[in-house]
Amino acid sequence: MGLKGKLIAAVEFKAGGDVFHELFRHKPHDVSKASPTVHGCDLHEGEFGHVGSVICWRYNHDEKDKRAKQVVQKIDEEKKLIEFKMLEGDLMEEYKTFLITIHVETKEGVDLVTWTLEYEMLNDDVGHPISLLSYFINITKEIETHHTPKPSVE
Fold first, then answer.
1. What positions does the domain Bet v I/Major latex protein occupy (predicted)?
2. If residue 131 lies in a helix (H) or strand (E), which one and from where to where?
3. Nearest residue to 23 via CA among 15, 31, 14, 12
4. Residue (of 11, 13, 42) closest to 134 by Cα position
5. What letter would DSSP give residue 48?
6. Minimal CB count within 10 Å: which of 55, 84, 87, 93?
7. What is the pLDDT of residues 60-76, one digit of tens each?
8. How far is CA 56 from the centre of its chain?
């Protein structure tokens, strides 16, 4: 029987929460323009931005090229929430189940991007995906930098 776990990180996002949500909902293939460790996102079934669509990420984590095939399990526009359920890929070598939720909310005028990782490890030897959560925080910051207007030089 595997161990279940849940990791959550909320990151301030100064480039506008709507920008972040729209990017992951409708244009995940553009994440690679902001983050050099994301090599691409391909559509395998359905349409970007729709529940039931299957996408495959190509990325570099812990200095290794990896892939993750996911189904968009849930989209809640009002809450700016997207759930990705892992189907195949490198993570499934260590985890029985893996669910990634991205939620954008505004609290007291500050946009927060919250990453939630819910997982079940295949065995007791598997570690918690803390470095993956850190990776997602870094991607959030890279996207923020990419979408923040640069000061004009005159």
1. 2-150
2. helix 130-147
3. 31
4. 11
5. T
6. 93
7. 999 999 999 999 999 99
8. 12
Whether residue 71 contacts residue 84, with contact meaning beta carbons closer than 8 Å, is answered with: yes
Q: Supply the range of the domain harboring residue 81.
A: 2-145
Token duo for residue 145: 């930098």
Residue (of 43, 45, 13, 16) closest to 30 by Cα position: 43
Question: By three-state DSSP, how is residue 37 classified?
Answer: coil
Look up residue 131 and give its two tokens.
């470095």
Nearest one of 87, 105, 89 to 97, comparing CA atoms:
87
Q: Considering just the CA atoms, what is the radius of gyration of the chain in Å?
A: 16
> Rounded to whole angstroms, how far apart are CA atoms 87 and 98?
8
Quote the number of domains for the chain. 1
Residue in this structure with the two tokens 């984590």, named with its chain if needed: 61
Alpha-carbon distance of 43 to 53, in angstroms, equals: 8
Model pLDDT for residues 91-126, shown as the tens digit of each residue = 999 999 999 999 999 999 999 999 999 999 999 999
CA 143 from chain centre, in angstroms, equals 11
- Which residues have C-beta within 8 Å of that of residue 97, sequence separation ≥ 6? 85, 86, 118, 119, 120
Distance CA 83, CA 116 (A): 9
